[in-house]
Every structure is written in C-alpha cells, then in structure tokens.
Amino acid sequence: MPHSAGQPHDPSPAFENGTEWLRGDGPASDVVMSSRVRLARNLAGLPFVHRAGAADRVHVLDLVRAQVLKAGLCEKIMWANLHELGSAERSLLVERHLISKQHAKGKPASHPGSVLAPGPAPAGIPDDPRGVAVGLPGERLSIMVNEEDHLRIQVIRSGLALDEGWAEIDQIDDKIEAGLDYAFSQRFGYLTACPTNVGTGLRMSVMLHLPGLKLTGDIEKAKRAAQDMNLAVRGFYGEGSDAAGDFYQFSNQTTLGKSEKVILQDLQQEIVPQIIEYERVARRTLQSKRATALEDQVYRAYGTLTHARLLTTEEAMQMLSHVRLGVVLGLIKHVEQRLVNQLMLLIQPAHLQRVLSREMDQEQRRVARASLLRAKLAG
Amino acid sequence: MPHSAGQPHDPSPAFENGTEWLRGDGPASDVVMSSRVRLARNLAGLPFVHRAGAADRVHVLDLVRAQVLKAGLCEKIMWANLHELGSAERSLLVERHLISKQHAKGKPASHPGSVLAPGPAPAGIPDDPRGVAVGLPGERLSIMVNEEDHLRIQVIRSGLALDEGWAEIDQIDDKIEAGLDYAFSQRFGYLTACPTNVGTGLRMSVMLHLPGLKLTGDIEKAKRAAQDMNLAVRGFYGEGSDAAGDFYQFSNQTTLGKSEKVILQDLQQEIVPQIIEYERVARRTLQSKRATALEDQVYRAYGTLTHARLLTTEEAMQMLSHVRLGVVLGLIKHVEQRLVNQLMLLIQPAHLQRVLSREMDQEQRRVARASLLRAKLAG
After folding, report:
1. Is residue A178's pLDDT more than 70?
2. DSSP per residue over B329-373, as a string?
3. How would CATH label the architecture of B3-283?
4. For chains A and B, what is the number of CB pairs under 8 angstroms?
C-alpha cells in the first residue's frame, strides 16, 4: 500500500495560551504541574514495531491515521508524519511533551534479526514511517504511532487530575478500538512490545515541582520513598532526562495484575498526595524557619532572569523554578504562574528558535533566551 | 608622666561625601581607586615600640599628640586614643583605611625580653597606649602612634596622585619634625623598628581596581610582572588581606638606597601606568571580543545586588566590583562611581552596624547589607 498520509497539515503546534499542561490551574497546581495517562496498544495480526518492516509500518500508520481522524476523539486532530518533518519541528513536539525523544529520533527501518521484513525499505516507502496525532485545542491528547508500540495514546491534564485523565483516555481508547482490532490476550490483557507494559498497558504519571524538598535537602529521601512504593522517578523530559527546574516525573511501574482502577486509586488518592504533602511541609518549614534564605533564593532568581545577558537552558530552568515557587508562595505578586510555566517551554532550544523564527547556535540561543526572559518578566 | 590624652574628641569619623579615597575623581580613576604615601618615623632617645614599656609609650603618645595638634598640619585634627576605644570603633577606623589591623588589635604592653621596661604596666597606665590622628576634612592624613614605629604618617589621595601625596606628606613631615627629634643616622637615614623600612621610611602604594584582568584571566601574570619590578601586591585591606572586589594594592618594597624622588618617579611615571594600561587593554578586549559576556557579568551583578536578601561582604564586594566596571564603561548609566565606592565601605561589618546604629550578628549583617544595597542602588 502506498504511503498516503502526507496531506498538508500544519505540523507546528500553535502557541496558544490554552496548552493544557501549562495552564497552571488544575487541582494542587502549587505542586503538580500536570498529570499524564498513557496507554500502550498494538494492532492484532501485525508484527510489533521492532519486528516490522517499512511496508508494515506504513500499513499501521495508514490504519491508525484513518481511524484517529474519523473517530471524533476531540474538536480537532492535527496529524504529522514525523519522517517528513525536519529535526527542528520534531524537537518542538518533544519540548511540548507530545512525542518522546525516541520517537523524534526514529530508528532503522529494518532489523537484522527480523524474519518478517528483512532488508531495506522498498523504493517509495520511507525508511522509518511514524506519526503523531495531536488533539486541539489544548494538546491534551497525543497519539504516537510506531513508537515502541503501534499506538501510544496519552492524555495530559493540568494539576493532579489522573482521574479525569483516565476517564478521558478510556473513552478515546474505546473510540479508537471501535475501528481497529487491538492485540489482546484473555490471559495477559493488552499485548505490548515490552513485557513491562503488558496487561493494562497503562502508565500514569505526575509532573511534580519540588523546589521545597530540593532546598531543604530532603529530595533524595522523597525519591527513595516513592521508589519504595514502586514509582519510577524521572526528569522533566522523561526517561533519561535530568530534573530540570526541580521538576520530577513520578509514574507507576506495574501494568500487570492490577486493574486500572486500583492503579489510579493508589496514585491519585494515596501516593501522590503524600509526596505533595512532603513538599508543602518543606515549603512551610522554609517559610517559618528560613524565610530570609527562601526570599533570597526567590528574588535572586528573579534578579538574574531580569538582568542576565546569557542564559543556558539549565540555569534558566533553575531560576524559573525558584521564581515559580516565589509566585506560588505569594512572594512575587506581579508575575502569573501560567507565564512562568509558559516560559519554561519557550526557553527550550527548539521553541526559542521558533519564537525568533531563525536557527541559532548555542551562544546565540543563550543571548536570545536571556533577552526573551527579560522582556517577558520585566516588572 | 600621667596619661593625659583623654580629652573627649569624637573618635568616630564623619560619613562625609568628601572622604578622599572614595571620591573616585582623581587621575586615572577608572582603574586607580587611591594613592597612598606613608612615612615611618621614630623619636630619638626613646626605645622602639616593641622594646618600650607602657610608660615609655605613654610618653611617646603625649609628645606626638602635642606636636600633631599644634603643628597646623591641616584644617582640623581628630585625635583618638585607641586603647580607650571599643572594638567596633577601632574596626571603623580599619575599614576606613586610617589604621592597620595590627594597630586596632594592639599588642602586649611589655615584652619578656625588654631590658628597658620589664613587667606589667604600672598602676594607672594603660596596657597598650597607642593613638591615631586623622586629618579633616577628607581624612587624607592619618598618623598612627605606637604602631610598629612611633609614627606612621600616611596621606591618601584619590586616583593616581603619588606626586601630590608625596608633596603633601613631605610638608607634614617637616612640620612634625619642627617640634620633635627624629631618630636619624647619617649613614642609614631614618631609623625604623624593622630594617625593611630603614632609609627613607617611605612606602608608596596604589589601590588598583583590576576586574578586566581578572575576567580575562591575566591577573596572575600582571601580579607576577609587578613582583618582578619589586612591587608587593596585597589585598583591599593591606598585608594578609584578600583581593576583595578585584582590588589590589601595589606598593614599593625598597626604602634604602633609593631617594624618595626616584621611588616616586618609578611608580608614578613607569610601573603603575603600565599596570593601568594592562587593565585598560583587558577591558577593551572584553568590550570588543566578549561584549555580551562582559555585559552579562555586569548586569547579573547589578541584578543580584538589587534583589538578594542575604549578602556576605565578599560577595557584595565582588558584585560591586562588576557594577563599578559597568559604571566606568558606561554600561550602567544611572549609578555614580562615587556611590559604588562609598558602598564598598558602607557594607563592611563595622560600618554597617554604625549606619544602622546597632550591633548585629553575622546573619543579621547579611540581611542588613542586602537591604542597604537594594535601597541605595534601586534604579
């Protein structure tokens, strides 16, 4: 089947104020930036992605795209073939948490060990056919096609809202399944490329802002406690990324043997509220016992962001983290939390180049980043 | 002879704008904070200070005080008996560069090896009789009595003005000598407690602000070059102090075998102008090749000083150094160099407590220092 998903959709996400995870107004948004629910799904009768040749993957892409566009998942679906996008556009999608770094990078089309489709892609077929569907407005929904699994469906909500996210993704999953045959085993549940996802195929995660625990020095203790409760702790951009700006992603590890409802209840009602409470206690301790040191950190960060002429992403994230804490605690009154959240996205390399409509080397980005922050934060 | 120098003079120097070394308007004041000329002198027929008992030192104090007060050295002389001052007042004098740290601290009145006056001070005589005369207005002149030598006379001038300083101190020296008999040898010249001062008893020094050489990394090279030319390089508060705020004191080492005129000419015409030129070249290099990095340093420093809630003396000095550089280079336009100079004095611990009229522990001083800097520098 020829590749047919190339209609000219605008692959660049809009810079809208409504981007869900930047809104900063969900439940417990003083600590919880966003909640994310994702499902791993595969199509029955087709090889898993890492065993599939290019033609198989194009087939998956076409099937999923057709169903996703007609299923009425949300107001509007933006579709992009990632193998047709330049690296700047793909980086934009990563920075917006719409696709994984792995999905942006892609992988070889054929694998030496593949019995089903050995050798290079046939003429006229892309090397690594893969795509993404993004739900608008708000970019709450995204569906990666041909990442590790045929489908990786994710719903993001502002604040602590795994329950709402679950309700939404459950409906979306049903609508997609109405037109596609999922690989499912009565014994194991949903089948996935990696055994750690088998069963529910569900991963729930929350992005927590923990500057208080960082400043009191209790962050490692909190991470260990979470790990003891079977949570994985990752950075701002997921697996393998650093905890930029004191953001930590906590997610469940178990997908097999526990129902979705139990996973949801554990996280939403028990574990995450506990971590939130640790962070709030840390902030209260700082406010009562080390108020001046706290203010010093917050205002220095603001002073640096409004005066520096060169800023790396890492430093800017760290400073924005302290400013965000200052805003949440009422120390900085004239800056809105949503603006700080937005800046955390806009200072990322690809967004910075997009905002300024030109490619830049690292040094130029540092200048542009500092300049943008001064302009946006100036009192 | 009873101790008679205790008339109630105000031992606290005035906080006047006219303080000479803070004016910031002398020659080459972009680099040279101040020039200092000092003479070491001793009275004939009396033991050197480290060999003198308390009664001898009181005698020296009385002789010098009487002559200094009547010799018409300048508009007004403020006299203080240091052994009668509290440590806060003595620290103020150190911070204003009017007395040495050693002179503030004092020393035991009698020395085990002293043949002239063994044992403790007799009843009614202070343990460590010592004083200082300060010339007003401007505090250009100060005379330490019973420091290492009976007299240490110093004249400070703003900018590079060793010649004016020398002309002034030469006259003052003559006026003092008119009523006192100096220890002098036809063969060696003026006799001093330490052989390194014998001969002219002269030391000339300049306080240079070298942030450019610090930022380009050439400061150590410049220091070595100065040492090769027989200059001693010290910090902001002289011997044993650190180079706070990128200030370095360069002074001549040789007092014997070179006339005052030759020492003066070497420093004022040859060596110091060379170091000044190194610094100016470094600044021009920064401006032409690393303009953004330079601006980044300058504005970050300003941002920190106008936002921090806790500042140590060391950090404040370093930030003020960068702000001073920014003012001199025209990057910061609304702040005057004189204000930056004054702040470098006002943020020192004793001055800070004086300004706020209360004693403070280190943490309180950090708060007060940050608060003062914000108030004074706010645009």
Report:
1. yes
2. TTSS-SS-HHHHHHHHHHTSHHHHHHHTTS---HHHHHHHHHHHH
3. 2-Layer Sandwich (3.30)
4. 48
